[in-house]
Design goal:
It is a single chain. By secondary structure, this protein is an alpha/beta fold. Helix 1 packs across helix 7 and helix 3 packs parallel to helix 4. The protein has a single domain, classed as NAD(P)-binding Rossmann-like Domain (Rossmann fold, 3-Layer(aba) Sandwich), CATH 3.40.50.720. Strands 3-2-1-4-5-6-7 form a 7-stranded parallel β-sheet, with helices on both faces. Strand 2, helix 2 and strand 3 form a beta-alpha-beta unit. The protein binds nicotinamide-adenine-dinucleotide (NAD). Nicotinamide-adenine-dinucleotide binds next to helix 1 and strand 2.
Length: 252
């Protein structure tokens, strides 16, 4: 019996990287998965892979910065699978590693909108369903950039510090209603998140200086296994916690 048997889970940003591995692992563990991402074709490939292995998954093409898309995902979970038990806030954007003096409003707003307001929208839409059912679980993929000052640029760092605060607030505010909300803070993980980014040379060099203390990069499936722990009843007494998964980088 899988650890998520009979559970229904939404995973945002599921077309690549950690979100893809989380969606696949959750389905292997028995969950019915609603996978959300903007790239419909890439998302469908993930769904096809899951269903070919006998899992249950549906694609919802959508953008976490759009209220209607977020509400549609929650509605789809309830209409298609009858309930919603788990929401993984994984979708995220990296900035260009720039210091605050080089951040323009467009970059700032897009990073905050996806990394911070996106999870808030998902939680706001899911909580009424969780309350009706007597509980539910949030897992938010933040970053060690949400705990330290210079793992990325100003916008990303602020967004990830913010989302950790949001997820902790939800954890305590709704604890007595059976809702848990925990955070994963990954270190460097091999994904496509920095591809197509024009890194700011000065900020990039300053952030990169700390890389010498990073024991190793992680793989997306290693983060998926942390997400499984936080989404399953194995972590029933864990709430409002930030689980660092970085091979000891931030232990230096
Ligand atoms: N890779 C790392 O080193 C690292 C480290 C710490 C934290 N993180 C965080 O992990 C999470 C997953 O990132 P990843 O490394 O797997 O990168 P990734 O680029 O492979 O995955 C991010 C996913 O989010 C999706 N996405 C972006 N904006 C979206 C939006 N508005 N609506 C819906 N989906 C959207 C992307 O399409 C993509 O599928 C992010 O929140 C990221 O900040 C990554």
């Amino acid at each position: 019996m899988g650890k998520l048997e009979n559970k229904v889970a939404i995973v945002t940003g599921a077309s690549s990287g950690m979100g893809k591995e989380i969606a696949k692992l959750f389905a292997q563990e028995g969950a019915s998965v609603i996978a959300i991402a903007r790239r419909a074709e890439k998302l469908q490939e993930v769904i096809d892979q899951i269903t070919a292995e006998g899992g249950r998954a549906l694609a919802v093409s959508g953008d976490v910065s759009k209220e209607e898309d977020v509400r549609n995902a929650v509605r789809t979970a309830v209409e298609q699978y009858g309930r919603l038990d788990i929401v993984v806030n994984n979708a995220g954007l990296m900035d260009r590693m720039g210091g605050v003096a080089v951040v323009d409003d467009q970059l700032w707003n897009s990073i905050i909108d996806v990394n911070l307001t996106g999870p808030m929208r998902m939680m706001r839409a899911a909580i009424p369903v969780f309350l009706d059912q007597g509980g539910g679980v949030f897992v938010t993929v933040a970053s060690i950039g949400g705990l330290h000052g210079c793992r990325a640029g100003a916008a990303y760092t602020a967004s990830k510090h913010g989302v950790i605060g949001l997820a902790k607030n939800v954890g305590h505010m709704y604890a007595k209603k059976g809702i848990r909300s925990n955070i994963i803070a990954p270190g460097g993980v091999n994904t496509d998140i920095t591809s197509n980014l024009q890194i700011d040379p000065e900020g990039g060099a300053l952030c990169g200086a700390g890389l010498v203390t990073n024991p190793r990069m992680g793989e997306a499936d290693e983060i998926a296994r942390v997400a499984l722990f936080l989404a399953s009843d194995d972590s029933s007494f864990v709430n409002g916690a930030t689980l660092v998964a970085d091979s000891g980088w931030s232990a230096y």
